[in-house]
Design brief:
The protein is α/β, with parallel strands linked by helices. It has six helices and eight strands, in the order E-E-E-H-E-H-H-E-H-E-H-E-E-H. It has an eight-stranded mixed β-sheet, with helices on both faces. Strand 1 and strand 2 form a beta hairpin. This is KANL3/Tex30 alpha/beta hydrolase-like domain-containing protein.
Length: about 210
């Protein structure tokens, strides 16, 4: 049986951040995941992973950036997000387990940009914003291709920030949630329920984490 979730406040150079730990009973690694620029750790994909992974030996650390903890509505510049993440890292690494850096959307970009520097074991990029909607020429592929560690991208099939077919070749792994938008919501006409869509996501992540050894 897993222990109860607990929260931990961490002071960073970008302000006070917060980690919600969902511990596995016999953890082999930590998956640290942060939210995007428009929401928090209540996102459906983060909640699904927090529910599924502890049973597979993965302690989940849901990370709230300082701007969210402070109650602000708009995320700061990428450099400030990176500063917050760096400040959190010692707390994430404190259990002494390999840490997989992850996040959704803007949080995925942070994990990609800082993975090598911080010594992340791998990167999980949920809804990686390959480009702004309608502006494929403004690609952020270099962030994804430059992680330097094993990387899994989980992308909605209808994500306006980059559909799976738009992603360039690279050494990363790409998993698709059919019909999903940027928040992995699926339309009723798709025939998929939200539960089924989240099942696709959690199975892809669980399988990939297991493959890391």
């Amino acid at each position: 049986m897993s222990r109860q979730p607990r929260t931990q406040n961490v002071t960073t150079d970008a302000g006070e951040a917060r980690i919600t730990w969902i511990p596995a009973a016999a953890p082999r690694r930590v998956l640290a995941v942060s939210h995007g620029a428009g929401g928090g750790i209540e996102a459906r994909d983060l909640k699904a992973l927090a529910a599924a992974l502890p049973g597979h030996g993965v302690t989940v650390a849901l990370v709230e950036q300082p701007w969210r903890v402070a109650g602000k509505k708009v995320a700061p510049a990428p450099k400030t997000l990176d500063t917050g993440w760096r400040g959190l890292w010692p707390a994430l690494a404190a259990p002494g387990l390999p840490v997989v850096a992850g996040g959704r959307s803007a949080g995925a970009r942070v994990a990609c940009r800082t993975a090598t520097e911080l010594g992340a074991a791998a990167v999980l990029a949920l809804s990686f914003p390959l480009h702004p909607p309608g502006k494929p020429e403004k690609s952020r592929a270099d962030e994804l291709l430059g992680t330097g560690v094993p990387t899994l991208v989980v992308q909605g099939g209808n994500d306006p920030f980059g559909k799976p077919g738009e992603f360039p070749p690279g050494s990363y792994t790409l998993a698709e949630v059919p019909h999903g938008d940027h928040g992995f919501a699926v339309p009723k006409r798709s025939g998929l329920t939200e539960e089924q869509a989240m099942g696709v996501l959690t199975e892809a992540v669980t399988g990939w984490l297991t493959s890391l050894g």
